[in-house]
Amino acid sequence: MSGPQRKGKPSPPRARGQDPATKDWRVATMSRLRGVIRKADPAAVEEVKWRKPSRPEGVPVWSHDGMICVGDTLKSAVRLTFPKGARLRDPAGLFNTRMDSKTVRAIDFHEVDPIDEPALADLVREAAALNSSTVKHR
């Protein structure tokens, strides 16, 4: 026999892009960020991408006419990376990492950090609008 079998209990589902080993503040933070993104752009599509043996849970990616942002659960932070972030206005100063990149900007949320939901929603909407403005219409 290969080990104990649980009858009547399904395997715990992987929460979209979440590693079950990180059932702590990071899961709650990612869930809250997911809600802000969905509310800011209801047309955004969330997918899990980049699954690999070292990261079987993959990472959540939100898109609307192109990639808006990528979520990542790090040891000490939850990160939202905006691939076109350098082209976005950030009057609230949310971007706090990847500042040396010519294209990408990111926000690291640490356990004690407040989340400025209105400012984050503005960034999400602006990223979606930027994508939509650069889509070539047939």
- Please identify the structural class as seen in this structure: alpha+beta
Question: What does the main sheet amount to?
Answer: 5 strands, antiparallel
Biggest sheet strand line-up: 1-2-3-4-5
Q: Helicity, in percent?
A: 10-25%
- Identify the CATH class: Alpha Beta
CATH third-level topology: Aspartate Aminotransferase, domain 1
Instruction: Give the termini separation.
Output: 59 Å
Total of DSSP H or I helical runs spanning 4+ residues? 2
Uncertain stretches of 5 or more adjacent residues: 1-18
How many domains? The number is 1
The radius of gyration over CA amounts to: 17 Å
Going by CATH, the architecture would be Alpha-Beta Complex
Measured by DSSP, the beta-strand proportion falls in 15-25%
Quaternary arrangement of the chains shown? Answer: single chain
Mean pLDDT level: 85
Beta strand count: 5
Q: What is the string of helix and strand elements?
A: HEEEEEH
The shape, in one word, is globular
